[in-house]
Design goal:
With about 240 residues, the protein is of the alpha/beta class. It is about 40% helix and about 25% strand. The protein has 9 helices and 9 strands. Helix 3 packs across helix 4 and helix 5 runs parallel beside helix 6. The longest helix has 18 residues. The mean pLDDT is about 95.
Amino acid sequence: MAEELVLSVQHLTCGYRAAARRQRQEVLHDVSFTVHSGEILGLVGESGTGKSTLAKAILGMVKPDGGQIVHYTKRPQMIFQDPYSSLNPAYTVEWTLEEPLRIFGKYDAAERRRRVREILTRVELPEECLAAKPAELSGGQRQRVSIAAALIQRPRFLIADEPVSALDVTIQAQILELLKKLNRELGLSYLFISHDLNVVYQLCHRVLVMKSGQIVEQGTVEDIFDRPQHPYTKRLLAAD
C-alpha cells in the first residue's frame, strides 16, 4: 500500500517583480517533491535560494507562475523563525490560542478553554503562561506558544521555517525534542526549513537540497549526509 500523501508539489515555478525592474525575476524553477503522512522533510540551502518563497507558495501567500500544489489535508500551518514578531504583543497567550477557534470553529467558551489547555499541555507549558503576554515569556516559551498556535486547529501538516535558529543551543535541543514528540504522538508531517545541517540530521527523515531556486538533490538523511551526489550538497556538508 502506498504511503499517504499530505502534500504534492509538481513543476512549481514562482517569481516576483522588483519595484525597480520591469522584468519578473524567477525565484523557483521546476520544483517537484512530495510529503508523506508522518514524515519530517528537511529543506536546506544557503540564504537566498528560495526556501522561504517555497513555503509562502505552499501556504498560498504568494501566487505561483506555473506548476501545481496539491494539499491532501486542511489548513496547513506555519511555525515561524521569530515567535516574538509572529505573536501579537498586546494579547495574552490565552487570547492568542483561542482566537483561531473563535474565527474558524463553532466552539463555545468552555470547549475553547478545554482545547487551549490541552494544547498547552502538549507543548509542555504550565497553565500560568496563559495570562502572560509574549514579552513576559522566555524565547523558548514563546516558541512553544508559537507551536501551540500552529497546532490549535489540529492540522496534519506544518511548515517550520528556521524555528530554532533564534534560540540558544540548550533551548534548541528542547524544541527539537518537542517537535519529534509531536511527530510521533500526533502523526504530524513537517516541511522543516533550515540552514543548519546538524539540526536537519537530528530531526528529519528525508532532505531536499535547494540551490538557486531548484531542488538539486533529494533523498533520505543517510543518502544526503553519507552519500551526497551533487557538488553543491558536498560543498554544504564540507562547510558545516
